[in-house]
Design goal:
Arc Repressor Mutant, subunit A, Four Helix Bundle (Hemerythrin (Met), subunit A), 3-stranded antiparallel sheet, 11 helices, 72% helix
């Protein structure tokens, strides 16, 4: 029986996920050019599918398009590390406060589901999955917060935040530590403790940024 082909949007999204995983795994380095023809050959898809996948990654700010030059993986400098940390702390703490104030049973289920997936990834020592779920946890918090403008601002941080988390991965030799850092935040949001949720989220990334910059110095 002939295998059913995935609809184009699904194929583009799946290809984008594969490229994203390769970027996080270091197959393509920061600043490296992503050649459409090479990617199409590597993944066994058309160049139009690759173009759609790269547009998805552009929307996540993980890939940048430079006119007449092509697509490139974004680069994260020392200054970017500090800036991403500040922006994440600001937006995620606001999101945590709003989410705690407006949390519903549906919101609790969504957030607990992501957290449980984080626990499973940590048990399996699947660090790439844990990185993606770490960001997914905070994206879910921001979505639950219910602010469209906050959500739009946070979307612009997705790509840089993913690379930030990848760069900070060596700071946590034990995957369970990452889970343990999120459990109090989950509890505060789900219990409606807005002040505690804000405080926990606000100092969530700054220590990592300081350690990363110190290590690079």
């Amino acid at each position: 029986m002939r295998k059913a082909r995935l609809p184009r949007p699904s194929l583009e999204a799946e290809t984008a996920n594969l490229i994203r995983a390769d970027i996080l795994n270091g197959v393509w380095k920061q600043g490296e050019r992503l050649v459409e023809m090479d990617l199409a050959t590597s993944f066994g898809v058309s160049q139009s599918t690759i173009r759609g996948a790269l547009k998805n990654l552009q929307a996540d700010a993980l890939v940048v398009h430079r006119p007449r030059r092509g697509h490139f993986v974004i680069e994260i400098s020392e200054g970017d590390v500090r800036e991403i940390s500040i922006l994440r702390d600001t937006l995620e703490s606001l999101g945590a406060r709003l989410a705690a104030q407006t949390i519903t049973d549906e919101g609790r289920i969504r957030l607990e589901r992501v957290f449980n997936d984080m626990c499973a990834a940590a048990r399996m020592a699947n660090r790439q999955k844990l990185i993606e779920l770490d960001l997914s946890f905070h994206r879910t918090v921001v979505e639950i917060a219910g602010s469209e403008r906050l959500n739009e601002l946070y979307k612009r941080l997705v790509g840089p935040a993913l690379l930030f988390l990848r760069m900070a991965d060596h700071l946590y030799p034990e995957p369970q530590v990452i889970v343990d850092l999120h459990e109090p935040l989950l509890s505060a949001i789900c219990s409606g403790d807005a002040d505690r949720a804000f405080a926990l989220a606000h100092r969530h990334t700054e220590p990592d940024a300081q350690r990363m910059v110190h290590r690079q110095a």
